[in-house]
Structure formats: C-alpha cells, structure tokens
C-alpha cells in the first residue's frame, strides 16, 4: 500500500518540475512583450521576475514530493496535504487568469495525485492503528 503513494508523490514532483520548466520558458516572451508595450518601467522590470518566481515556487513544491518518493519520511502525509492544497490554490488562480491550457491541466493532475496520495497514506495509518 505504501508503494503507490510514493509513486504518486514522485509523479507529482515530476509534473511540478515539468510545469515549472514550461512556465520559465515563457519569461523571455513576457520580457519581449513588455519591451514592445507602453508600460511603466517598474512593471516592465518586475513582471518577468514575478513570472520566474512562480516557476521557482513550483520547483520548491516539487522537492518534498520527490524526496518523499525516495525516502518515505515521517512527514510524508502532511507534506502531501500541504502541497496539494497549495497546488489547488495555484490551479484556481492560474485558471482564473488564463483558463484551460496545459499548465492548468498539469496543476489539476498534481492536485488529484496528491489528494489520492494523502488518502492512501491516511488509510494506511488507520489500518496500522487497528
């Protein structure tokens, strides 16, 4: 029973890294679009950094899931719940801004995967206690 949550956590981590990579590749296009538009200099400089921050945020969420997939630490279930809730918030925010596209679908897959992971880990803990 413990193997499937570890596989799902690893898959979630890889999906988050994939999403971060694709998001980071758009930073140049954002900078070019801002250079060609009449935008206040502050926003023209700040927006690409904020764009890359979201990519970094996805990488940071991927790391505990990848570690959990390898090491199966004691904090696995709380980390899966926390990362799942953060990914759910990211999904709703990105969907509200951009609608359906591969990035929102990847975030939704991560949310579902981490939800199943947390459920299976909780079920395994309940079974151990009984």
Name a few traits of the molecule:
130 residues; mainly alpha
What is the fold's blueprint, element by element?
Elements: H1 3-25, H2 27-35, H3 41-71, H4 76-98, H5 102-129
Helix pairs in contact: 1-3, 1-5, 2-3, 3-4, 4-5
Total domain modules: 1
The dominant shape is: elongated
* Sequence of secondary-structure elements: HHHHH
Sheet of most strands: none
Task: Classify the beta-strand content into a percent band.
Answer: under 5%
* Total DSSP E strands: 0
Q: Which segments are poorly predicted (pLDDT under 50) over 5 or more consecutive residues?
A: none
Provide the gyration radius in Å: 17 Å
- Could you tell me the mean pLDDT? 87
Distance between the first and last residues' Cα: 16 Å
Assign a percent range to the helix content.
over 70%
Number of separate helices: 5
Query: What structural category arises from helix and sheet content?
Result: mainly alpha
Can you describe this structure?
This protein is mainly α and 130 residues long. The protein has helices at residues 3-25, 27-35, 41-71, 76-98, 102-129. It has one domain. It is built from five helices and no strands. It is elongated.
Summarize the structure.
Helices cover 88% and strands 0% of the residues. With 130 residues, the protein is mostly helical.
